[in-house]
Amino acid sequence: MKPIRLMAGFFTVGVWTMASRVLGFVRDILIVAFLGAGPVAEAFLIAFALPNMFRRFFAEGAFNMAFVPMFSKKLEGHEDPERFAQDAFSGLATVLIAFTVIALFAMPWLVLAMAGGFLGDDRFDLATSYGRIAFPYILFISLAALLSGLLNATGRFAAAAAAPVLLNVLFIAAITAAVGLGWPLGDTLAWTVPIAGIAQLALVWSAAARAGFRLRFTRPRLSPDLRRLAVIAAPAALAGGVVQVNLLIGRQVASFFDGAIVWLSVADRLYQLPLGVVGIAVGVVLLPDLSRRLRAEDTAGGRYAFNRAAEISLALTVPAAVALVVIPVPLVGVLFQRGAFGSEDTLATALALAIYGLGLPAFVLQKVLQPLYFAREDTKTPFYFALAAMVVNAVAAIGLAPVIGYVAAAVGTTLAAWAMVALLWHGSRRLGEAALIDDRFHHRIWRILLASALMGFALWAAALAFAPYFAPGALRYVALALLVTLGGTVYFAAAHLLGGLPLSDIRRSLRRG
User: Fold this and answer.
1) CA-based angle 5:215:105, to the nearest 5?
2) Beta-ladder partners of 341
3) What three-state secondary structure class fits 115?
4) pLDDT band for position 479 (50/70/90)?
5) Residue in 394, 363, 171 with CA at minimum distance from that of residue 274
6) Continuous segment of H or E residues that includes residue 34
7) Spans of all domains in the chain
8) Which of 56, 399, 431, 455 could crosslink 61 through cysteines, CB 3.0-4.6 Å?
9) What's the Cα-to-Cα distance from 115 to each of 50, 109, 132, 254, rounded to whole Å?
10) What are the backbone angles phi and psi of residue 223, rounded to the nearest 5°?
11) Residues contacting residue 334 through CB under 8 Å, at least 6 positions apart
12) CA distances from 417 to 7, 268, 433 (A)
């Protein structure tokens, strides 16, 4: 993939991810408006989190981080990539079917592992029931993730990036139907999860078939390549899913504080917007590109791709992080405060959001640094780093919870993210020239930081001036839109004038992409 195609792929994934995140906002706004921070909302969020957490281990965090480099190399070397993909598809499906059956029987223990604070109240029985309905989603979404990795490796990003949009469209439709027809909202949400998984799998399967890879479930064949894939994927299960593991610790802590599961979930939704649009988009495009370059021994091209991914990631996420820290209350209040979600919920969520915002650049840098290891089929080193980061998270979250309450979960997650980045960065020194920072990055990074600081000051001053207009009513949407527009304008103007992010770079990438 040429450097300019790397940027085009990034924008393709970013646009679709933005659409998914916006619809996700609508979904979560509806959920908290009708359910607030009550037991049904908390129970569903835990039930939905279970298959999503495990999918990071079985698919996006493990299988894909091992599968994409191997598949890319076979594709580059014309070594029968379709046979390898078929074996991986059947092997993953077999493991997931067995795991799903076991999980359905073990659901009460899984709920306890996720939210021990639920034991002894209505949330436990609700979460167990919803979990059994929703958990088969892991089978469909994990197979969809493998097919998405295949499509990304062939340079086809649109279908894989568009699949999550289906999930949120179906959720919004289900909530609307439940409210209109009087269905139990918790049950409706739970049943929507596996239905959405089937829809997502169908979309990417069709796209893969059009690309010439018509994969089917067959009797698994334990080939030498599949054995190697399993060996590589085992440590990647933790390394690629470190954010989910840390969130698991956070949810366990939060489950002992009424309403905290919902507060942290809403804060997570807000910081996941820039993380998804920038970090995930760059990571998805960068891994197959680096894998192909290393296969072709194009070290200089790999270094260029890595530096540009890091540069554009920080250029877009540092200002986002500043905004989350400076104006969390207007963001949460305008977007989510309505119906059963009151002002106290807003303040509690805003505090968690500001803490998450401090870790946003670290969450994104992980997505940029990890492909340096995975492209070399080195998943053991990030695994050890992830273990260290988990210890940091557990000590901070559990140790601080008696002192500062539920926000200890957010503090632990943020500290663990920066610990992971520090370890990945230190370890990258031995990865050769492809991992070195170039002069252009050194030239631009401090300008990006200065432009973000100027934007933060402008947002702070404007938020004070707009404060009377953030009260419930139609004007609050206009006030927030003006605030966000002002922040974006100040940042991009400052970054352009300072030379941190020349607008000509973005225009050139879009035009040639």
Assistant:
1) 110
2) 338
3) coil
4) very high
5) 363
6) helix 3-35
7) 3-437, 438-513
8) 56
9) 11, 10, 16, 8
10) -80, 165
11) 470, 476, 477, 479, 480
12) 25, 14, 25
Backbone angles phi, psi at 432, to 5 degrees: 90, -170
Beta-carbon contacts of 360 under 8 Å, excluding residues fewer than 6 positions away, are: 271, 274, 275, 317, 320, 321, 324
Q: Are 292 and 25 in contact (CB under 8 A)?
A: no
pLDDT(476) > 70: yes
Assigned token pair, 141: 């979404």
Residue 82: CB atoms within 10 A of its CB come to: 15
| Residue listed under structure tokens 């303040």 | 347
Q: Which residues contact 512 (CB under 8 A, 6 or more apart)?
A: 4, 8
Sign of CA dihedral 437, 438, 444, 450: positive
Tens-place pLDDT, residues 201-245: 999 999 999 988 888 888 877 788 788 877 777 766 655 556 566
Tokens at residue 366, please?
């992980």
Average pLDDT over residues 418-432: 87
Residue 69 and residue 77: Cα distance in Å, rounded? 12
Please tell me the distance from the alpha carbon of residue 500 to that of residue 256, in angstroms, as a whole number.
44
Which amino acid is located at 121 in the chain? D
Asked if residues 60 and 211 have their Cβ atoms less than 8 Å apart, the reply is: no
Q: Where are the alpha helices (DSSP H) in 106-241?
A: 107-114, 122-134, 137-153, 158-181, 185-210, 224-239
Q: In 3-state terms, what secondary structure has residue 398? A: helix
Instruction: HSE, CB side, 13 Å, CA atoms: give it for residue 166.
Output: 20
pLDDT at 508: 56
State the burial class of residue 204 (Cβ atoms within 10 Å of its Cβ: 0-12, 13-18, 19+): buried
Q: CA distances (Å), 387 to each of 52, 301, 374, in order?
A: 20, 31, 17
Please report the DSSP string for 403-464 in residue order: HHTTHHHHHHHHHHHHHHHHHHHHHGGGG-GGGS--HHHHHHHHHHHHHHHHHHHHHHHHHH
Nearest to 425 by CA among 306, 292, 283, 326: 306
For tokens 């934007």, name the residue: 455
As a residue count, the chain comes to 513
